[in-house]
Amino acid sequence: MGSMLSIFISLFLSDNLILIRENMTWNEALSYCREHHVDLVSITTELLQSWVTERAASATSSQVWVGLRFTCSFHFWFWIRSDAGCYQNWAPGNGSDSQQDCGIAGAVETTGRQQWVSLEENQRLNFICYKCSGDSGEGLIHL
């Protein structure tokens, strides 16, 4: 029974991610996801990372925004929708190992090792949203 539940949860969660092939800043992407779907995706497990990278491979930008943000006030990275968790996938020289400035958000590389990178939040990239099960996302690219 436990493995059936795991399979159901895996299928349910992987189907609730949508790649938006429109270039927006991080704040625009956040607003768009919250208005039209649920939120920018938060990657807290290796399994979720694999679903995100599967969708990111079809992006038209070299990275895709995710719900990862740096706070200048407290000098740490956080997921906008979840506890931090232990899973991390930072590219070398990014994340907590690097010097960060204000106005930085996290993205996933769409090629190569598809690791997390820190970018200025005013860059315009594709992005990945959580969506509700019944959300058709009409006019958007479903993968």
TrEMBL record:
The answer, when asked if Lipid metabolism is one of the entry's keywords, is no
According to its UniProt record, what is one Pfam family this protein matches?
Lectin_C
Keywords of this entry:
Signal
The C-type lectin domain is annotated at: 12-130
Q: Keyword check for Acyltransferase, yes or no.
A: no
The record, for CDD domains, names: CLECT
Task: Tell me the leader sequence span.
Answer: 1-20
Q: What is this protein called?
A: Macrophage mannose receptor 1-like
What is the originating organism of this protein?
Answer: Salmo salar (Atlantic salmon)
- By which gene is this protein encoded? LOC123723746
